C-alpha cells in the first residue's frame, strides 16, 4: 500500500505546477500559512513519510477516537500499537477520557436519529485506511471522530437529495483528504466530484480516491485547462489558485464545511461572491456563527453568520450543527487550563435556487 501511495503522490506532484509553493499565496490566513510551511519542510525531501502520513500528521488528523480494547481493535492495530494506546489511556486524566467517550456516543446517537446508521454500516472506516484511529461499534462497523462528521454530512446530503441522478456536478471547497467523497461516490457512481483545496490536501485525496475508485476518471491540476464539458464518473482536483478556471462548469451543489470561517475576509469574498457559487443550484454550509468571538479570537478575521447571505437563494434548512456540539476540550483560556465547550457553535445551512 505504501508503494502505491508513493506512486500516486509522485504522479500528482508531477502534474501539479508549483506544488510546494502554496504558502506564498496572497491573503492567506496565519493558520494555513503555518501548516503549509510545515508541510513543505517535513515532506519535500521525504515522500515516503508523506505516503505513510496521508491522514494523520502533526497539523491535521482524524481527530481521534475513544480508547477501546477488544479483539477487533487489537487485530486492526496490532499488539504493539494497542499497548501504546493502553499506556496513553492510563496516563491521560480520567476526565479527558470521560468527555471524549460521552461526546463520541452523542455523535453516534445523532447519526442514528438522522437515519445515517446504514451509511456507517456500509462504510466502516477500517475498510479504507490502515493505522488510523478506529473505534469498533461491532465486529464489522467502525468509525472515529472525523468519520462521524462525514457520515452525518452524507446522511444530510441524501436526506435533502442534494446529489442524485439529475444532479451531475458537485464542488466541495476545502475537501481535506476526500473522506466525504469516499463515502458518497459509492452511491453516486456517474456524478462528477470536484475537489478544491491546497495542493497537499488534493494530493492526499488523490492518493486515496485513486486507490479506492481506480476505474473513475481522475483529472489532475495541470489537466484542468483541457477540461471537457461532457464529464462522467470523474474526480477533478483543483488547487485554490485555479478556482476561476472552472467558472464555465455548471454546478448542482457547492459545499463548504468549516473552512470558510477560518479564511481571511479577502479569501472568503473570493469564494462566496463568485459567479461560480451564484450560479449553482444548491449550497450546503457548516461554519461558525462567529469565527472569532471577542473573548477568544480563534481565527484572523471578523466573519459572522451575517456574511454568509447569498442573494437569489431560498433557505431550505438552518440549525445548529450537532456533531461534536457537546464536545468539551481541555485548553488554556484566561490563564486557566480546563475543559470547555468551543467558543462559538457551528451553523448548518442549506440554500437552493
Estimate percent helicity: 25-40%
Strand order of the largest sheet: 5-6-4-3-7-8-12-9
From the N-terminal CA to the C-terminal CA, the straight-line distance is: 43 Å
**Architecture of the domain at 149-352, according to CATH?**
3-Layer(aba) Sandwich
Radius of gyration: 20 Å
Structural classification: alpha/beta
Count every helix, treating DSSP H or I runs of 4 or more residues as helices. Answer: 12
Sheet-strand content, in percent, reads: 15-25%
The coarse overall form would be globular
**H-E string:** HHHHHHHEEHEHEHEEEHHEEEEE
- Reported by name, the CATH topology of the domain at 149-352 is Rossmann fold
CATH top level class name of the domain at 149-352 = Alpha Beta
**Poorly predicted sequence stretches spanning 5 or more consecutive residues:** none
* pLDDT averaged over residues: 94
CATH superfamily of the domain at 149-352: Vaccinia Virus protein VP39
Number of strands: 12
Fold and architecture overview:
The chain is an alpha/beta fold and 353 residues long. The protein has 12 helices and 12 strands. The radius of gyration is 20 Å and the shape is globular.
Amino acid at each position: 500500500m505504501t508503494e502505491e501511495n508513493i506512486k500516486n503522490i509522485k504522479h500528482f506532484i508531477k502534474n501539479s505546477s508549483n506544488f510546494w509553493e502554496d504558502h506564498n499565496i496572497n491573503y492567506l490566513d496565519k493558520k494555513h500559512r503555518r501548516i503549509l510551511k510545515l508541510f513543505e519542510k517535513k515532506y519535500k525531501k521525504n515522500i515516503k513519510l508523506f505516503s505513510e502520513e496521508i491522514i494523520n500528521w502533526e497539523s491535521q488528523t482524524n481527530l481521534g477516537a475513544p480508547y477501546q480494547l477488544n479483539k477487533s481493535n487489537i487485530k486492526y492495530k496490532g499488539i504493539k500499537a494497542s499497548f501504546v494506546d493502553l499506556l496513553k489511556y492510563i496516563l491521560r486524566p480520567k476526565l479527558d477520557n470521560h468527555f471524549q467517550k460521552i461526546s463520541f456516543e452523542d455523535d453516534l446517537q445523532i447519526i442514528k436519529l438522522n437515519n445515517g446508521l446504514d451509511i456507517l454500516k456500509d462504510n466502516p472506516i477500517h475498510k479504507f485506511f490502515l493505522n488510523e484511529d478506529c473505534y469498533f461499534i461491532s465486529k464489522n462497523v467502525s468509525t472515529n471522530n472525523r468519520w462521524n462528521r462525514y457520515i452525518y454530512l452524507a446522511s444530510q446530503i441524501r436526506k435533502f437529495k442534494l446529489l442524485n441522478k439529475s444532479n451531475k456536478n458537485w464542488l466541495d471547497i476545502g475537501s481535506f483528504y476526500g473522506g466525504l467523497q469516499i463515502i458518497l461516490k459509492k452511491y453516486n457512481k456517474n456524478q462528477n466530484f470536484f475537489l478544491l483545496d491546497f495542493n497537499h490536501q488534493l494530493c492526499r485525496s488523490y492518493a486515496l480516491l485513486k486507490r479506492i475508485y481506480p476505474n473513475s476518471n481522475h483529472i489532475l491540476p495541470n489537466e484542468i485547462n483541457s477540461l471537457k464539458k461532457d464529464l462522467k464518473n470523474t474526480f477533478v482536483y483543483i488547487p485554490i489558485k485555479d478556482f476561476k478556471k472552472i467558472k464555465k462548469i455548471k454546478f448542482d451543489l457547492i459545499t463548504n464545511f468549516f473552512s470558510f470561517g477560518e479564511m481571511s475576509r479577502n479569501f472568503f469574498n473570493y469564494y462566496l461572491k463568485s459567479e461560480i457559487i451564484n450560479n449553482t443550484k444548491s449550497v450546503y454550509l457548516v461554519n461558525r456563527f462567529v469565527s472569532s468571538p471577542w473573548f477568544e479570537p480563534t481565527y484572523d478575521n471578523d466573519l459572522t453568520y451575517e456574511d454568509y447571505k447569498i442573494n437569489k437563494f431560498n433557505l431550505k434548512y438552518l440549525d445548529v450543527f450537532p456533531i461534536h456540539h457537546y464536545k468539551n476540550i481541555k485548553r488554556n483560556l484566561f490563564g486557566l487550563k480546563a475543559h470547555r465547550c468551543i467558543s462559538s457553535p457551528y451553523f448548518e445551512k442549506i440554500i437552493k435556487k
